[in-house]
Amino acid sequence: MIELPDPKFLADENVAKLGKWLRILGYDVAYRSPATDAQLALLALREGRVILTRDRGFLERRMAEKCLLIESQDAIEQLQQVIQTLGLKPERNHLFTRCLSCNVLIVPIPKAEVRSVVPDYVYKNHDEFHRCPTCERLFWKGSHTKNFQKWFREIDN
Ligand SMILES: [Zn+2]
Questions:
Q1: Is residue 96 part of a domain?
Q2: Which single residue of 34, 84, 127, 134 could bond 102 by disulfide (Cβ 3.0 to 4.6 Å)?
Q3: How many whole angstroms separate alpha carbon 55 and alpha carbon 108?
Q4: Any residues with CB less than 8 A from the CB of 84 and at least 6 apart, and which?
Q5: What's the rounded Cα separation, in Å, for the pair 113 and 94?
Q6: How many CB atoms lie within 10 A of CB 55?
Q7: Which parts of the chain have pLDDT scores under 70?
Q8: Range of 112's domain?
């Protein structure tokens, strides 16, 4: 078992969806761009990332020290495997703190600033807005976040 207080990850492209879920939980997840195994291992080592992959061969070639072989094909089961194996304790206040596209922390912005850019019903029904400093996408708590928080409560217990 690898013990890290706040692990950063490097997700292989075969577990891209898992990487997205981890970003939702607030973890720093980089993706594997087309690269050799050696480059991938070097990047993980340099940035202190745990490699997540479904590629058994990668593990067998002992390319990296911190590598977790993901077993299931189902993203939720994969997430549970990561949480259990690494002993993660995802915190509710870290949920949706990161842009899912850019992997950077999103920042709160005053409601008045979004008046002209979001639909009226969104403006009327929400008070908290965040923006990604990289892609400038806006975030607010929508129905998908509610569903996710419900699921989170289930695994949290
Ligand atoms: Zn972004």
A1: no
A2: 134
A3: 38
A4: none
A5: 24
A6: 20
A7: 1-5, 33-34, 63, 143-157
A8: 107-156
Whole-number pLDDT of residue 4: 40
Domain assignment present for residue 3? The answer is no
Q: Residue 3 C-alpha to ligand 1 middle, in angstroms?
A: 29
Taking only the tens place, the pLDDT of each residue in 88-114 is: 988 878 888 899 889 999 999 999 999
Structure tokens belonging to residue 139: 């975030």
Ligand 1 center–CA 140 separation, angstroms: 14
In degrees, rounded to 5, the angle at the alpha carbon of residue 68 between the alpha carbons of residues 35 and 11 is: 40
113 and 67 part of one domain: no
Tokens of 74: 């189902």
Same-domain check for residues 112 and 75: no
Choose one of 91, 115, 145: the last residue of a domain: 91
Which residues are found with C-beta within 5 Å of the ion, ligand 1? 99, 101-102, 132, 134-135
Q: Is 13 helix (H, G, I), strand (E, B) or coil?
A: helix
Is 140 contained in some domain?
yes
Alpha-carbon distance of 20 to 22, in angstroms, equals: 5
Ligand 1 centroid to residue 157 C-alpha, Å? 31
Residues 72 and 112 in one domain: no
